[in-house]
Amino acid sequence: MYDTLVLIIRLRVNLSPPNWSDADSWPNFAQFPALLKFSSTSADWFIQPIPDESAFAFLGELHEANLWQEHYESILFVALIIIVQLGLIIGLLAARRKARRADESLTLAAEAAHIGLWRREANSSLVVATDQFRKIFDLPTLGPLDLKLVHQRLHPDDRERVTKVIEGAATAGQGFRLEHRIVCDDGSTRWIASHGRSQSGGNSRGYSAHGASMDITDRYEAAATADLHRQELAHLSRISSLGVLSGALAHELNQPLGIILSNAQAAEYLLESDHPDLGELRAMISDIIREDCRAGDVIKRLRALLRRGDKKPQLLNVNENAEDVLRIMNSDLIRRGVSITTSFAHELPPVLMESVQLQQVLLNLIVNACDAMERNDPSMRSITLRTFTNGSDVCIAVQDRGCGLPTNPENIFQPFYTTKLQGLGLGLSICRTLITAHGGRLWAEPNKHEGASFIISLPMAST
Question: Which regions span the lipid bilayer (predicted)?
Fold first, then answer.
């Protein structure tokens, strides 16, 4: 303890002296003790009035400061920092817990949708993947997953393409989407759809990527099955169309065969003479060769229409294919009393389609046009076949003078819709399917005066 310190402060008061017995009338000297605060000491203060001298005495009992009194500001500051850090740690743990729950929910949703998630960091040969991804790619269920092992699963024909797509996306900082094949341990092939995003590793070599993959083998097999059924149906449609033309086709073959037989018999007769006319024999042999080629062309066109599709579209000259169809139908058109007027555009760009399928569509449209004019007067049975360009498309129009279209022309393209007694209602539906499969359109519209027009529009092939 220190000795008592007495401080006498004299006051000059213009008012009458205060009532010293009434503490409420004392002047406010609360600021004076603050003058005696020291950094290493503190004091307990007492106020004692001195009536005779109109003053107050401030009695201070000084003593040494303890550790808390000396460092309480620093301690409070440190405690505040600790509280803030503790709050940040608690918030970080909560955020991590929330992120982990979100990741678990995402993984669960991906597994329910049969989607495998994966991630690969830049300059790392390891791939972090979910169990579903390992299952899809037929990879080991345990242990680290090396990038080389995943790369080996890719189909040899798809490896370079997959790598280029992902690296290209990393360079551009964009997402990627592709479909590719993998080869499993048992040699089977699966189709995979992969979606993701990749980005360059900066100054370091390599790139990071993450994404999702899904097995779409069932979808591809279903599409292949549907395509096979479509081809089978188209094949049956071609056979049905040729069945309608069977009489005309028989005539097409009988005519050259009859000429061949007649010339052969005449040549045999000439050879029995002692001095056969060699010039006449040469002319007969030339006729035989010409008619044989004619019959061969008929059979060749029939075989082309009867064979199954090649599945490989090729560059086609629309005008040439239209002329081939008219040659096949020539005898049937004569038998029905139908005249054909052609208006072919010159130097048409080629289209990309199977020749057999294009001829099948044209054959079906021309047969339908003939059927629509069956009740017309012979002078009113005519078909106009035109080819032209419309923007970036090549168009073929078959115009007739028949009974016209129903109120809603789209109905005739529906499966099993028919106005014929013996019809199945599949011809136009198949025709539209074939044209649509090659990026084109097929529609019908009424003519200005009579009949209807069926228009085929196919995109020009890029050469």
Answer: 75-95
